[in-house]
Amino acid sequence: MIQRFLHARNFLACILAAATGMALYFRAPFPDTNLFLHVMAIRSASAFLFFKYSYTLFLYTTPYIVYSVLLSGIYIFALKTTRKVRAGKLPLYPGPAQRANLSLVVGELHHQCKQIPSETPHWLVIPERGLFTGIAIVGAVGSGKTAACMYPFAEQILAYKATDKDRRIGGLILEVKGDFCEKVREILKRHDRLQAIRAAMQECRRNLPNLVERLMQQIEVRSAMAGLNPDKMIAASGGRARHDAGLLRLMARGLEEAKDEEKLAVAAAMWNEFRIQAVREGWFAENGVEAAAMSHHTSTIVPMLSATPAARWRIDSTEVSCQR
Ligand SMILES: Nc1ncnc2c1ncn2[C@@H]1O[C@H](COP(=O)(O)OP(=O)(O)O)[C@@H](O)[C@H]1O
Ligand SMILES: [Mg+2]
Questions:
Q1: For position 305, what pLDDT does the model report?
Q2: What is the 104 CA–ligand 2 centroid distance (Å)?
Q3: Does residue 200 lie in a domain region?
Q4: How far apart are CA 86 and CA 3, in angstroms?
Q5: In-domain check, residue 165
Q6: The domain containing residue 6 runs over which residues?
Q7: Is the pLDDT confidence value at 49 over 50?
């Protein structure tokens, strides 16, 4: 509250000066009756008027200067040192694949002269023209030059118009160690996969709209198995798949394919989840043959697991009763 007043200190000084000036105007008016001033008025009316109006003006300006100095003093010495500025919210991050023009977001833009966060920060963006010059990243070994700059910068550049064969960015990488090339290859592969998802969804929406939901579920499961970033996958497929018994079945099947002990344990739990959800959705009856077959299938997975505590815990915690 006080800070807000002090931010508008000039306005506040004006109001206080107006009030003080008004009070002084009535309490200490211009002494017209003074003998010397009277003589002056007779001898030179303009000089008299000059003094009279100057006097009235000073009744306002002098308090203004005093208040202004006082409030500025409070602002500088009393409050500014303890003032805490809370960093404002950044605008939505412009996704590299959605950018209309080539640009590189290298960080956040706060106060340029003060070491405090801004209440209205922006993204620090290098536009296309700036990208034709070199960029130097300076820091000690292990300070994150590669992890925090090279990889995300390469990702942004390569994601730009990645689906447009004529406009996407090509380049030549020369490096000594070779691991950056590997990383770039992985980035490109990921964007190819995302592009394939986009194309498949587009095609399905156009020609087989009743299968869109099932395709989305397939994509969600396969992407999770391939370790694709879920947010990017959701953006590419245009939404989240419906989480129903069908999705649980796909996930359980996928996990079972992995032949990895941890994943098999989760698959067993997932089959159980599927059985419960499928009964809830009316796929089959709780005590029916199908439910029994499901329990039997789950029980065939369990012997494949060595009884590691982690695997046991996962199964117990999801109430898989397949040892019966
Ligand atoms: N800000 C950070 N937070 C967590 N880990 C970091 C950070 N910066 C770097 N690292 C990790 O430190 C290691 C070295 O970073 P790297 O980018 O290779 O450094 P540089 O290229 O500057 O030598 C990497 O394993 C990286 O993941
Ligand atoms: Mg490095």
A1: 62
A2: 19
A3: yes
A4: 13
A5: no
A6: 2-79
A7: yes
